[in-house]
Design brief:
This protein has 2 domains: 6-51 and 124-177, Alpha-Beta Plaits, CATH 3.30.70; 56-121, no CATH class. 47% of the residues lie in helices and 12% in strands. It has 5 helices and 4 strands, in the order E-H-E-H-H-H-E-H-E.
């Protein structure tokens, strides 16, 4: 029988300064995936967590190019190849007339792609997070300062991480089941 999977270790701190110092220390050691929760803003915490660059601009660009280019290509195909109609001697490939719908679809495609990328990047829709089952985590919105350390599956490594968190000033450390 295999050991139960673990989401991470939930470490509580007495104040925001202790949380910030622990996060900075772990990030300097190269630990990735740390999450921090505080009831009020902690100056420097967002910068210390070193968020990854956003992928939203690339997703929006791809959605805009696909939406606008696809609409332009569809209009070009239908007006020039599939069903050409001579209206007043105008050329079949009247690209200035194709631009307004292509622009509208480019904007719509960019907005939809950015929305879907934002949902996917945030891990949504997620109806339940493992932290919601932790009784102590309810204090995160009132007076608790918490850090979730991504936990290795090996119990020996987990004990080493637990000792490291205690050395950084963590009060209580609980295992968060996955």
């Amino acid at each position: 029988m295999s050991a139960p999977r673990v989401h991470g270790l939930l470490a509580s701190f007495a104040n925001g300064e202790g949380l910030l110092a622990a996060v900075r220390s772990l990030v300097n050691e190269g630990v990735d995936g740390i999450q921090a929760y505080a009831p009020c803003p902690v100056d420097g915490l967002a910068e210390a967590l070193a968020p990854r660059p956003s992928r939203l601009p690339r997703a929006a660009l791809a959605g805009g190019v696909l939406g606008g280019g696809g609409t332009f290509a569809l209009q070009l195909y239908s007006a020039v190849y599939a069903y050409p109609i001579n209206v007043g001697g105008r050329p079949d490939a009247s690209w200035p007339m194709f631009l307004p719908p292509a622009l509208e679809m480019a904007l719509l495609g960019a907005a939809l792609a950015a929305f879907v990328a934002m949902l996917w990047g945030n891990g949504l829709p997620q109806l339940f997070h493992p932290l919601f089952g932790m009784a102590r985590f309810e204090r995160a919105s009132r007076d608790g300062y918490f850090m979730v350390f991504p936990c290795p599956d090996d119990p020996v490594e987990r004990d080493a991480v637990r000792e490291r968190l205690h050395a950084l000033g963590a009060g209580t450390i609980e295992q968060v089941p996955a």
